[in-house]
Structure formats: structure tokens, C-alpha cells
Write a structure and sequence with these properties.
Oligomer: single chain
Distance between the termini: 26 Å
Radius of gyration: 21 Å
Structural class: mainly beta
Strand content: over 45%
Length: 272
């Protein structure tokens, strides 16, 4: 059960299916350090690994706390060291989300033809397991009438993959009374160490079914659409759809079957 909940939490971070509700304007606004919400609905995130299952999403939790400097935002723990009209910059610790795909794989018997021989042989094959990585980095947020820009750089501090990721995302929100729409587009650069740990195949993991493979650095890009509609002060509707294009280095791995990762979630939202 704990494993399943951990996979779901990491999945929601990767999909970023946050509760994108339009805020209702009132004369008196009481500021709270907490942001709590829950969405019930249905969604799916495709799994690019071979012999793997797509990951369903039924519940989306939004749990965040913001202090004067420290904050917790859906799994990210951060310390803000700069906050002004130009930008907000924070030191953030997080868990890498690539591990979530390896939690939904199966052990299967694979039939292969050895050197063109007429007799085929069935062997047991299991996708190699991967560990979670704790990463530490810097995140910068800036916005204006032109939209919002997020820049971040993270490095593994747990010794899992010992690599780094550079990330950039641009979004533009549009609001019309109760309706809120936010498209966004972004890119992420993964170092060779990070890439090879998750998508490579070591000599010990190789077999007659999967050959050894070493992945180099690569650049992914993604596009996302968030739509929220406010029904009342606490209730609303939420829709999130995302597309991610895996780079050539990861897509060429023998344990990867698809380079396109699709995700969506639609549900009813309650915000406390």
C-alpha cells in the first residue's frame, strides 16, 4: 500500500496535475499558510517502458505549506533566499520522478529466435529495477503580464545516479471570471549520469533478450494544458493534459518501447 501511494505521489508530481482553480474574488481575503485540496476523478499516465502498465490516477491531493522562508509544496521542501518584484529564488529538495515508471513493470516470458533458428526459446525477462534519488537544487520563478517562467537546476545528493537536470518552463494563464486556462511548454536537459542510470542497461542486467546499453545526455520537451472552472468558493472542475517527448538517447534504450508519454486527469475539486 505504501509503495502504491508513493508511486501515485511521484506520478502526480511528474504530471503536475495540481488543482488549477480560478480564485473567487471577495472583499475580505484571509491569508493562510496552508493550501489544501483534493480532486476525485480519473486519469492515466502512459508508461514508456517495455512490458509495463499505464498508471491510473483516481485521486489528486494538493498539500502545501508556506512559511516566511521555508515551504513544503506537494513533496518539494524548500527555503526561499530571494523574494522581490523581479523574481523568487529558492533552494529545493525533491525526489526524482523517473523512478515511478519502474514500479509498474511485469516479469514475463519472452520468446526469441536465436540466430534465425526455426526453434524459438522462451526466457524470463524482468525490467531492471531503479532506486529513488533525492536531489537538491535551485529554483527561480518570475512572472508578469507576459506570463510566467520557471528555471531550475537539480543535482543528485543521495548518490543514486550522481547526475543533474536543467529545467525551463514557460506558462501563460488566462482568466475569465470563473474559468481559468493555462497552457505551458518546457524543456529539460538530463546529464549522461542521470540518463544512463534510469535508461541504460548494465552488463549484469543484459541477457539474450536485452543487450547492454549506455545512454548519453539528452533533451526532453513537454507541453501541458490546465483548465479550471470554479463552481463555488470551495468546489470546482479541473482538467490537466500533458505530452512529453523523450529524447533519442532514452528512446534508443532496449527497455523503452515508446518515446511519447501522455497523461491526463479530469475531476471534481474541493479546496479547503
Amino acid at each position: 500500500m505504501f509503495r502504491r501511494l508513493t508511486q501515485l505521489a511521484l506520478l502526480l508530481l511528474a504530471l503536475d496535475a495540481t488543482l488549477c482553480l480560478a480564485e473567487e474574488e471577495t472583499e475580505e481575503v484571509t491569508e493562510s499558510r496552508w493550501r489544501l485540496g483534493v480532486a476525485l476523478g480519473y486519469g492515466v499516465r502512459s508508461n514508456p517502458l517495455v512490458q509495463s502498465d499505464d498508471i491510473p490516477i483516481i485521486v489528486d491531493l494538493d498539500i502545501a505549506w508556506f512559511g516566511d522562508r521555508w515551504f513544503f509544496d506537494n513533496g518539494d521542501l524548500g527555503l526561499t533566499f530571494a523574494d522581490n518584484d523581479a523574481m523568487t529564488a529558492s533552494l529545493v529538495a525533491r525526489v526524482n520522478s523517473d523512478r515511478v515508471f519502474f514500479g509498474n513493470t511485469d516479469t514475463r516470458f519472452v520468446v526469441f529466435d536465436l540466430a534465425g533458428m526455426p526453434l524459438a526459446e522462451a526466457v524470463e525477462f524482468e525490467v531492471p529495477d531503479r532506486d529513488y534519488a533525492v536531489e537538491l537544487g535551485v529554483e527561480m520563478l518570475t512572472d508578469g503580464p507576459w506570463g510566467a517562467l520557471q528555471l531550475s537546476a537539480f543535482h543528485d545528493v543521495s548518490g543514486t545516479h550522481e547526475g543533474f537536470e536543467l529545467y525551463a518552463n514557460y506558462s501563460y494563464g488566462w482568466r475569465d471570471q470563473r474559468l481559468y486556462i493555462e497552457p505551458s511548454i518546457g524543456v529539460s536537459y538530463n546529464s549522461a549520469d542521470l540518463h544512463n542510470y534510469y535508461w541504460g542497461v548494465t552488463d549484469d542486467e543484459a541477457s539474450v533478450v536485452v543487450a547492454p546499453y549506455e545512454a548519453e545526455a539528452g533533451l526532453n520537451w513537454h507541453a501541458r494544458l490546465k483548465v479550471g472552472y470554479l463552481l463555488s468558493r470551495h468546489w470546482g472542475l479541473s482538467l490537466v493534459a500533458e505530452y512529453e517527448r523523450i529524447n533519442d538517447e532514452a528512446a534508443a534504450s532496449p527497455i523503452v518501447k515508446e518515446r511519447d508519454v501522455l497523461g491526463y486527469f479530469a475531476g471534481v475539486v474541493y479546496r479547503f
